[in-house]
Amino acid sequence: MKPLRYIATKDAKGWHWQKGMQEAISALPPGRYDWQIERHKKKKSLSQLGYYFACVLPMFRDYALDQGWEFESIEEVDIYLKSLFADREIANKHTGEMIKIPALKRNMTTTEFMVFINQVRDWCSEFLGGYIPEPGEQSQINFEFSPEN
Questions:
Q1: Are the C-beta atoms of 85 and 108 separated by less than 8 Å?
Q2: Using an 8 Å Cβ cutoff, are 9 and 15 in contact?
Q3: Is 115 exposed, middle or buried (0-12, 13-18, 19+ CB in 10 A)?
Q4: Alpha-carbon distance 116 to 109, whole Å?
Q5: How many C-beta atoms lie closer than 10 Å to residue 87's C-beta?
Q6: 45: helix, coil or strand?
Q7: Quick check: 116 and 108 in contact, CB under 8 A?
Q8: Which residues pair with 99 in a beta bridge?
Q9: Half-sphere exposure of residue 93: CA atoms within 13 angstroms, side-chain side
Q10: Domain presence at residue 15
Q11: Which of 55, 99, 112, 147 fits as disulfide partner to 108, beta carbons 3.0 to 4.6 Å?
């Protein structure tokens, strides 16, 4: 059986069920069921990912190259930035040793991902002397026009 997954909202007046949820639950055959309720967290958006991969990473790489860093690809820049601002610790339960690994972007919420991007922008400004525009910030494009064309 495929698990049912619905989102419900609770406010001062009570629960508000997602459309179809009560019908799907009522249609289940008799038996024992495991219910898990957890607070819903909004995952990062596609527009955030687009901004990160199309604007933040290329601009950061350009500024880093200007400062002498030799990043060969956008993927290397991504790994480097995650190691700086988004690592998580893993413990060895036998020795107590702690190691750090880069966190996965797919597990970040909208807020966590925006904090991560802002840390990257601030670090780029402070240590590389480069400005990465905010999402939606209008950039001016200068085209050279030649009368011969």
A1: no
A2: yes
A3: middle
A4: 10
A5: 13
A6: coil
A7: yes
A8: 90
A9: 0
A10: no
A11: 112
Q: Which pLDDT belongs to residue 57?
A: 97
- Read off the tokens for 128: 């590389």
DSSP states of 138-149: ---------TT-
What's the pTM value of the predicted model, to 2 decimals? 0.66
Tokens encoding 101: 């690994």
Distance CA 66, CA 126 (A): 14
Give the integer Cα–Cα distance in Å for 149 and 146.
6
Counting the structural domains of the chain, the total is: 1
Cβ neighbours around 59 below 10 Å, total: 19
Residues whose CB falls within 8 Å of the CB of residue 85, separated by 6 or more in sequence, listed in order: 116, 119, 120, 123
Per-residue pLDDT of the chain (149 residues; tens, 9 = 90+): 777 777 788 889 988 888 888 888 888 888 888 877 777 677 888 899 999 999 999 999 999 999 999 999 999 999 999 989 988 888 999 999 999 888 888 888 899 999 999 999 999 999 999 999 998 876 655 666 666 65
Domain, as residue range, for 112:
46-128
Q: What is the pLDDT of residue 15?
A: 84
Question: Distance between CA 115 and CA 37 in Å, rounded?
Answer: 27
